[in-house]
Amino acid sequence: MTIDDTETTAGDWEREPDPSDSLRTFGAVVQALREHAGLSRAEFAVAVRFSKHTVASVELGRRMPDEAFIERAEEVLGNTGALRKAARHLTRGEPGLAAWFRRWAKLERVAVSLSTYECRLVPGLLQSEGYARAAFDSRIPPLSDEQMDAQVNARMERQQLIRERPNASFSFVVDEHIVQRRLGGDEVTRQLLDHILMFTSMRNVSLQIMPITCQHHAGLDGPLALLETPEGRNLAYSEGQESGRLIADPKEAAVLHRRYATLRSQALSPLESVGLLERIRGAL
């Protein structure tokens, strides 16, 4: 059983979304009210308890504001009700996010824990900008410069989840061959490993490497993405080459959560994994 994304049509599943006019309009309203209140972006960011980067993304129409942002912005900007009313007309056509991924991306923003297993690429939440650009540069058919920028910006923006949600747990299990592959060249790989090691120093991030030499591997059926909602509900997400599926059936999701737990027991410990990354980095 899957949770249907009722905000998308069949055609949406066949293309990358365009920037949403409603997001741009909402962002312009936020910016106008902020400037009318005499607040800089930095001052407004402190007042609403979001990063300056997030405020800029909302004002530029690149990010769907969550409920907390809207409510805090209303309080700071006079409680006129304008933002609450404008938010009702927002559509979720975020640039750079595939239509099938939008529902999962929305759930990520409120999850108390996120777990990811990858055997293809470094997970998007851990990618450096250069690595993300190299990955999108390999896309067939090729992306235009505008599409490339939208994809990379969306991926970098999504990483704010880790920084903005220090009380949420982020767990990653990654096959060793992924970090050994020098996608984009040696310099891109060095920057990528530095980027990953920076994230592993955070208390809410755990990374484990599945070594090439492992004799047992619970993830042979492919990548996994899992989350737990604030209500304690376990969900999963499965992505193919041109599609994705949000898995809500409790029994099916439970199997995938057990599979991930087994993967963690088979992988190197977080400390051992950091040591391996540092050795790979030192050899470049």
Characterize the structure shown.
It is a single chain. This protein has 13 helices and six strands. The chain has helices spanning 21-36, 41-48, 52-59, 67-76, 82-87, 102-108, 129-137, 145-158, 160-164, 176-180, 186-200, 250-266, 270-283; strands at 113-118, 169-175, 205-210, 224-228, 234-239, 244-247. A six-stranded mixed sheet has the order 3-2-1-4-5-6, with helices on both faces. α7 crosses α11 and α11 packs antiparallel against α13. It is globular and about 60 Å long. Mean pLDDT is 86; it is low at 1-19.
Strand order of the largest sheet: 3-2-1-4-5-6
**Net shape:** globular
The CA-CA distance between the termini, in Å, is: 46 Å
Query: What is the averaged pLDDT score?
Result: 86
Secondary-structure element order, N to C: HHHHHHEHHHEHHEEEEHH
**DSSP E strands, number:** 6
* H/I helix tally: 13
Coarse structural class: alpha/beta
For the biggest sheet, the summary is: 6 strands, mixed
Task: Explain the layout of strands and helices.
Layout lengths: L20 H16 L4 H8 L3 H8 L7 H10 L5 H6 L14 H7 L4 E6 L10 H9 L7 H14 L1 H5 L4 E7 H5 L5 H15 L4 E6 L13 E5 L5 E6 L4 E4 L2 H17 L3 H14 L1
Parallel strand pairs: 1-2, 2-3
Antiparallel strand pairs: 1-4, 4-5, 5-6
Helix pairs in contact: 2-3, 7-8, 7-11, 11-13
Summed up, what is this model?
This protein is of the alpha/beta class and 284 residues long.
Key terms for this structure?
six-stranded mixed beta sheet; 13 helices; globular; disordered N terminus
